[in-house]
Design a protein that fits this description.
By secondary structure, this protein is an alpha+beta fold. Strands 1-2-3 form a three-stranded antiparallel sheet. It contains seven helices and five strands. The chain has helices at about 1-5, 10-20, 70-90, 110-115, 120-125, 130, 140, and strands at about 25-35, 40-50, 60-65, 95-100, 105-110.
Length: about 140
């Protein structure tokens, strides 16, 4: 089963889950990539449960799975868009900075760092107004 249907990069992990189930240790919500006959990848969320006979002896493993392929594809697409947006912000030719509800810096792109001389690490979680705004303008910015 494992060598036939499971993608090679996951075989050791799946084998471990199966071994655990055969020893009575069940696994819940294990995500794996299942390879179809046509070579497509299907993402499954699996629960592996020990199967026992009427005497309680372990006789196998029962896997109950849910196809989460569409969800996984959507997550991958969202991650790709987020990565592109992150790159856009980081490489923008304009300073982009942001603050959280407490006024602490949580966004500081490369152009902002170039202009201010403060790196993201130096600016992150610092109060924007009291740290980076000139004192005579703080009341207006606040």
């Amino acid at each position: 089963l494992v060598t036939t249907f499971i993608k090679s990069n996951l075989r050791d992990n799946v084998q471990s889950v199966m071994k655990d189930a055969l020893e009575g240790n069940e696994t819940s919500n294990y995500e794996l990539e299942f390879e179809t006959k046509t070579g497509d990848t299907v993402y499954l969320l699996v629960n592996a449960t020990t199967r026992r006979d009427t005497d309680g002896t372990v006789v196998g493993v029962v896997g109950v799975a849910q196809d989460v392929t569409e969800t996984k594809k959507n997550e991958n697409a969202i991650t790709a868009v987020a990565r592109e947006l992150r790159q856009l912000v980081d490489t923008a030719n304009a300073p982009i900075f942001g603050i959280d509800k407490n006024g602490l810096v949580n966004e500081w792109n490369n152009k902002t760092a170039e202009i201010t001389g403060f790196s993201l690490d130096e600016a992150f979680n610092k109060p924007l107004v009291s740290t980076f705004i000139k004192s005579n303008l703080r009341d207006n910015v606040q």
